[in-house]
């Protein structure tokens, strides 16, 4: 499959980065086309192996990884770090950028026709691969995702606001839909995998208990819950209509730092969210101030409307007797 280039207008993309963003968009059009065939096309959801984290790899995970790596070879990307590969790969020794990518996020949703995505993060490169990626997330020069949903859309930031471009099926190009996305502050939705309730820490349980208590609880508001199981889809919903997402650390083996990877997921999503006037933390501290310790290292992630994310941090600061109390006795957040 040869991707057509010049599929996004260069007006709002920094000149130097344009070929990289254009290549990502071009491949995403091909990926979207493959996904759109669903069960009529090749079988994409069958497991073909395991990545270095022990996560099952689906055929589409591997295919998307190969497609992005191939297209980015002819750009200024020096280091290509993919969630699907153990080590970063040298693409263009003379290139100026280091690009991290989760080629296909939400792969458990491939065969059920639910939105999935690609997440990417770009840094100015350093000599070595590790030093290029294991650095504070605030050093990203671009971060974003492509969502393959009812519409295919690119959401991207270069540190100057968060923009949305939507693939127009008629023109075959990504067209600007929103120049400055802003997360609404008033949503009453939260997103968390509630089946893990028994494994959570006390502050997370207390926060969710208080949401579930609705108008009778200290928040005095009825909340609604959503959980898609695709980080990109949750991010897109929250950017569009507000709310909060939590993938906290929990007591299961291997979940001491949550599930999501700092380099491929937390850092770029945090960049996009903060540039849309939201907040992204590990529960307490900003993600953008943190650096991954290893290429595939995980980090708890809480993001969304700023006031809600700050509230989660406040629960982590509560004294033990408050956080353990039944919601009826937890007076701090009433009102
Ligand atoms: P997959 O790509 O393996 O489906 O994982 C998706 C994901 O990394 C992220 O997109 C979701 O937010 C999260 O995992 C869902 O995790 P649960 O399995 O706990 O629902």
Bound molecules: 1,6-di-O-phosphono-alpha-D-fructofuranose
The top-level CATH class of the largest domain is Alpha Beta
Q: How many angstroms does the end-to-end distance come to?
A: 57 Å
User: What is the CATH homology-level superfamily of the largest domain?
Assistant: Fructose-1,6-Bisphosphatase, subunit A, domain 1
Mean pLDDT equals 93
What is the CATH T-level topology of the largest domain?
A: Fructose-1,6-Bisphosphatase, Chain A, domain 1
What ranges have pLDDT less than 50 throughout 5 or more consecutive residues?
A: none
Shape label: globular
Q: From the helix content, strand content and strand pairing, which structural class follows? A: alpha+beta
The total of beta strands comes to 15
Overall helicity: 25-40%
Radius of gyration: 20 Å
CATH architecture of the largest domain: 2-Layer Sandwich
The largest β sheet comes out as:
8 strands, mixed
Q: Looking across the biggest beta sheet, what order are the strands in? A: 4-3-5-6-7-8-9-10
Q: What is the total number of structural domains?
A: 2
> SSE string, helix = H, strand = E?
HEEHEEEEHEEEEEHEHEHEEHH
Estimate what percentage of residues fall within beta strands: 15-25%
Q: What is the count of helical runs?
A: 8
How would you describe this protein?
By secondary structure, the chain is of the alpha+beta class. It has two domains: 18-178, Fructose-1,6-Bisphosphatase, Chain A, domain 1; 189-333, D-Maltodextrin-Binding Protein, domain 2. The chain is 27% helix and 22% strand. A hairpin with a 5-residue loop joins strand 1 and strand 2. The longest helix is centred in the first third of the chain and has 19 residues, at 18-36. It starts with 17 loop residues before the first helix and ends in an 11-residue tail after the last helix. The relative contact order is 0.13. The model has no long low-confidence stretch (mean pLDDT 93). The protein binds 1,6-di-O-phosphono-alpha-D-fructofuranose. Residues 55, 105-108, 193, 229-231, 259-260 line the site of 1,6-di-O-phosphono-alpha-D-fructofuranose (AFP). It catalyses: beta-D-fructose 1,6-bisphosphate + H2O = beta-D-fructose 6-phosphate + phosphate. Mg(2+) 1 binds at residues 83, 102, 104.
């Amino acid at each position: 499959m040869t991707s057509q280039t010049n599929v996004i207008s260069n007006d709002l993309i920094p000149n130097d980065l344009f070929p990289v963003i254009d290549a990502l968009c071009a491949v995403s059009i091909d990926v979207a086309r493959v996904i759109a065939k669903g069960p009529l096309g090749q079988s994409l959801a069958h497991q073909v192996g395991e990545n270095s984290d022990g996560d099952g790899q689906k055929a589409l995970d591997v295919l998307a990884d190969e497609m992005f790596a191939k297209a980015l070879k002819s750009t200024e990307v020096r280091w290509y770090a993919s969630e699907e590969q153990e080590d970063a790969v040298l693409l263009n020794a003379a290139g100026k950028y280091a690009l991290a990518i989760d080629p296909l996020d939400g792969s458990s949703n491939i065969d059920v026709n639910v939105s999935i995505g690609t997440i990417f993060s770009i840094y100015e490169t350093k000599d070595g691969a590790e030093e290029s990626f294991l650095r504070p997330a605030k050093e990203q020069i671009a971060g974003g995702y492509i969502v393959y949903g009812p519409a295919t859309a690119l959401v991207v930031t270069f540190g100057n606001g968060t923009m949305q471009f939507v693939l127009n099926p008629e023109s075959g190009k990504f067209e600007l839909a929103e120049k400055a996305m802003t997360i609404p502050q008033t949503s009453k939705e939260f997103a968390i995998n509630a089946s893990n309730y028994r494994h959570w820490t006390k502050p997370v349980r207390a926060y969710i208990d208080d949401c579930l208590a609705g108008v009778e609880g200290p928040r005095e508001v009825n909340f609604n819950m959503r959980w898609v199981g695709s980080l990109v889809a949750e991010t897109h919903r929250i950017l569009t209509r507000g709310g909060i997402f939590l993938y906290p650390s929990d007591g299961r083996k291997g979940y001491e730092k949550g599930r999501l990877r700092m380099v491929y997921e937390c850092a770029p999503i945090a960049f996009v969210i903060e540039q849309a006037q939201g907040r992204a933390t590990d529960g307490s501290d900003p993600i953008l101030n943190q650096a991954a310790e290893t290429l595939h290292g995980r980090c708890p992630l809480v993001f969304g409307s700023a006031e809600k994310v700050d509230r989660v941090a406040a629960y982590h600061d509560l004294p033990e007797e408050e956080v353990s109390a039944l919601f009826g006795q937890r007076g701090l957040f009433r009102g």
